[in-house]
From TrEMBL:
Iron-sulfur among keywords: yes
4Fe-4S ferredoxin-type domain mapped to chain residues: 1-30, 31-61
PROSITE patterns: 4FE4S_FER_1 (PS00198), 4FE4S_FER_2 (PS51379)
Domain of life: Bacteria
Gene3D superfamilies: 3.30.70.20
Annotated protein name in UniProt: 4Fe-4S ferredoxin-type domain-containing protein
Keyword terms, alphabetized: 4Fe-4S, Iron, Iron-sulfur, Metal-binding
GO molecular function: 4 iron, 4 sulfur cluster binding; metal ion binding
Length: 116
């Protein structure tokens, strides 16, 4: 079950919202994904697998909520770890998707390049 969206790591690309087959996420006003319907999570790992910033943690047990600590997950190498398991991991390097979208998102947030 989806347990954590890291505000520090999230680049607000919206991929997790788009790929979730059960519409678990909403986005807040800043574009940060919010776990809105956790009970609908099927533990499919689609969100974690597609997150270019390794900002999500899905617990492996779908039928129980677990307490998570972001710092502990990072220290144990678990935050976003499903990407590495399935071969999507970047070995500590920024993924191509993050490298491609981060500058665009930063410009959008700062208002550069927006139509006035």
């Amino acid at each position: 079950m989806i347990e954590l969206v890291s505000e520090d790591r999230c680049i607000q690309c919206g991929l997790c919202v788009k790929v979730c087959p059960t519409n678990v996420f909403d986005s807040d006003v800043s574009g940060l994904p919010v776990i809105a319907r956790q009970e609908d999570c099927q533990t499919c790992f689609m969100c974690e697998a597609h997150c270019p910033a390794d900002a999500l943690y899905v617990a492996h047990h779908a039928d129980e909520k677990v307490e998570v600590n972001e710092k502990d997950l990072i220290e144990r190498g678990l935050l976003g770890s499903w990407r590495a398991v399935i071969g999507f991991g970047s070995g500590g390097k920024v993924s191509m998707a993050a490298a491609d979208t981060t500058p665009i998102l930063r410009r959008m947030r700062s208002g550069i390049g927006r139509a006035q």
